[in-house]
Description:
The chain has 210 residues and is α+β, with helices and mostly antiparallel strands. The protein has one domain: Galactose-binding domain-like (Jelly Rolls), CATH 2.60.120.260. The chain has two helices and eleven strands; from the N terminus they run αβββββββββββα. It starts with a helix and ends with a helix.
Amino acid sequence: MKRTTFLFGLLLWSAAASSATSINIPNFGFEAVTLANPDDYTANNIPGWITTINASTFRPSSADYVGGIPQGLNVAAVANGDFVYQTLTDTLTADTTYSLFVDVGNRPGFFHGYTVTLSAGSDILATESSLSPAPGGFLTSTISYYSAAGNADLGKALTITLADSGISGQVNFDNVRLDAVQGPEPATFALFGSALTSLILLRRRYRLVR
């Protein structure tokens, strides 16, 4: 009975340690500006984000995205190799896994690539630029970064950067999310789960032999 209770306790600890906390991202869905009609936009105006001259809040039409967009009515439209970024109030914390999710849209006739970046201070932690959404569709860019104890960037503010990677063209971004999970690196959880499974199997085998 004591062994069963111990194993159950370990499972509860693992589940609790792996629960994610959502980090606040102001204007995460680019809905802070009200645009009356499809195809309306506000040049160099994305509240909460630092913008360049070729970035705007944009309301796509159904001709752009027949199936709609991931969240709300608006997206961030970034063009001609420019970018937007937001520095958060949250800072890089030790022993934490960060997961950044950004929906990337291919406005037909405009898309030439993108880059999503997670930074701490002026240091880049991770980037992602591998997706190719179908014209008129979105795919979710995902970045995962584990911040170990002793990381030189601990305590620095986290920054999210969304960039168009083409010399010309445009990329649309929507529904930016950042989750944090405190505890051992995910690989450690996997090893723990494997060891726990092996222990349970050994106990069952021992009982059968007896």
